[in-house]
Amino acid sequence: MAETWLPTARHVPSPNHGPRPPGVQPWLVVLHSISLPPGHYGGPHIEQLFTNTLDWDAHPYFQSIRGLEVSAHFLIRRDGELVQFVACERRAWHAGRSSWQGHDNCNDYSIGIELEGLEGTAFADAQYPALAALLATLRAHLPTLRAVAGHEHIAPGRKADPGPGFDWARLIRLTGWPAAWFASTAPAAPTSG
């Protein structure tokens, strides 16, 4: 099977991936939020983290994540730009210790999508249609997809992203998918600043 690299994405291959378990097809999408350093947008640091090229001494925060080897399949920047790091058939390293609907190790059966943002703050308007378009494309290539959850839902108490600034109701409207496929149907909480 040819690996799925979407032509609509900018490709930045990450070395941080592996094979899925035999016979396992992705059926879950996990949404995350990321900014490096936290609250800073638009720089090269996310891509550097996912490609193991981050200068750990470039910012004091980076010492707290020094040596981390992680990835996601996709990143959606604040302006809606789509970046792909790992082919969809491969197992990206985004979920960590996790469980969804009685199934542990979410990396085995999920697609990880990072949204450039910070949990608790609002996401950019351009990210929602970009995410909805990506989900539609993924579903066309991977008809097994049938659930969308946040990192906060698959690792409660350990992770809090994408957080209350993410508008689940808006995403559901844009996708037209059944609300039952989503871990939350809540609109984004008002944020200050």
TrEMBL record:
Tree of life domain: Bacteria
Ranges in a coiled coil: none
SMART domains, A to Z: Ami_2
Cofactor: Zn(2+)
Subcellular localization: Cytoplasm
An example Gene Ontology CC term for this record: cytoplasm
Primary subcellular site in the record, as a coarse category: cytoplasm
Reaction(s) the record says it catalyses: Hydrolyzes the link between N-acetylmuramoyl residues and L-amino acid residues in certain cell-wall glycopeptides
Keywords: Cell wall biogenesis/degradation, Cytoplasm, Hydrolase, Metal-binding, Zinc
Class of enzymatic activity (EC top level): hydrolase
UniProt GO molecular function: metal ion binding; N-acetylmuramoyl-L-alanine amidase activity
GO BP terms, alphabetized: cell wall organization; peptidoglycan catabolic process; peptidoglycan turnover
CDD domains: PGRP (cd06583)
UniProt record similarity statement: Belongs to the N-acetylmuramoyl-L-alanine amidase 2 family.
Name of the protein: 1,6-anhydro-N-acetylmuramyl-L-alanine amidase AmpD
Species assigned in the record: Tepidimonas ignava
Gene for this chain: ampD
